[in-house]
Design a protein that fits this description.
Layout: E1 7-12, H1 16-22, E2 29-33, H2 43-56, E3 63-67, H3 76-83, E4 91-94, H4 100-109, E5 115-119, H5 122-126, H6 128-132, E6 137-142, H7 144-151, H8 163-176, E7 179-182, H9 191-204, E8 208-211, H10 217-223, H11 228-246, E9 252-254, E10 257-259, H12 261-280
Parallel strand pairs: 1-2, 1-8, 2-3, 3-4, 4-5, 5-6, 6-7, 7-8
Antiparallel strand pairs: 9-10
């Protein structure tokens, strides 16, 4: 069954109460953050807290991903050493990946640990194809706040200033079959704005959304899930195509539209996602 990444919630590893609450939140994945969300003087303590939490907590089917500090900091190598070989970790998120060699350096310290790349710099976006092709990579997470700061863009609801970067990362990930998750929406009390940005990301092709507050989970999970209408259409497209094949025809017609094998592939992915969502809610 396909793993879901509709919602990936950042949780500061220094916040013990937040870590406890995360066990029951309806997030597809938890990003345990040792980097931006933790003050420098709290880094070592946060690492110890997270190690203890992962040793005893049950996070169910949620993906458990640790965002370590960069290897260019005084904490990065200790983070990597602490979580290398930890069976409770499903992946490590590497910050500010600018080139494939950045992933090589982490992989050397954490062999066999699935890698995720934070795509949050101009250089990273320009090198997205090479990063996506790294053999240890599972997925890419867009860091829109850092990207906006680096390129000097202003906030716009349509995110036009960073569309080129988002598109480059998206194309690179899809070309290599990687998961790719959109950046955060900062105004966590603005549900309408969050929904609009989730819909934009979904329509572009992102697999989900990174989130900064539990109140954002419901919207992301809804938007990045196939609708009942999409599920029904997918099932009917597959059935119509099979009937056409049985007649010796290579295409089908459904509701006045052509259905080809490429439409069937998309329909199968929709039904697979719907099945995974239903399985996770049982």
């Amino acid at each position: 069954m396909a793993r879901l990444y509709r919602s990936m919630l950042y949780i500061p590893a220094s916040k013990e109460r937040a870590l406890e609450k995360a066990r029951d939140l309806p997030a597809d994945a938890i990003i345990f953050d040792l980097e931006d969300a933790v003050l420098p003087e709290e880094k070592a303590r946060a690492r110890d807290i997270l190690l203890r939490e992962l040793a005893v907590a049950d996070f169910g089917s949620r993906a458990r991903i640790v965002r370590i500090n960069g290897l260019d900091t005084i904490w990065g190598r200790d983070d990597a050493a602490a979580f290398a070989g930890n069976a409770a970790v499903d992946g490590v998120l590497v910050p500010k990946v600018g080139r494939p060699a950045d992933l090589d350096a982490v992989a050397a310290l954490m062999p066999q640990v699935p890698l995720w790349a934070m795509m949050e710099t101009a250089r990273g976006m320009l090198n997205a194809a090479g990063i996506a092709a790294h053999p240890g990579l599972v997925g890419m997470v867009v860091g829109t706040n850092d990207l906006a700061r680096e390129i000097g863009s202003r906030f716009r609801p349509d995110r036009l200033p960073m569309i080129a970067g988002l598109g480059a990362c998206l194309l690179a990930a899809k070309a290599e079959g990687r998961v790719v998750v959109d950046g955060v929406y900062n105004a966590f009390k603005d549900a309408a704005g969050l929904r609009a940005e989730c819909e934009q990301g979904r329509d572009m092709g992102f697999d989900g959304k990174t989130l900064i507050h539990p109140d954002q989970l419901a919207v992301a999970n809804e938007v990045f899930a196939p609708s009942p209408e999409e599920i029904s259409l997918a099932a009917r497209q597959i059935a119509a195509f099979r009937e056409a094949q049985a007649r010796g025809e290579g295409v089908a017609v459904l509701d006045g539209r052509i259905v080809e094998s490429l439409h069937v592939e998309t329909a199968k992915r929709i039904l697979e996602q719907a099945e995974a969502i239903a399985g996770g809610s049982e």
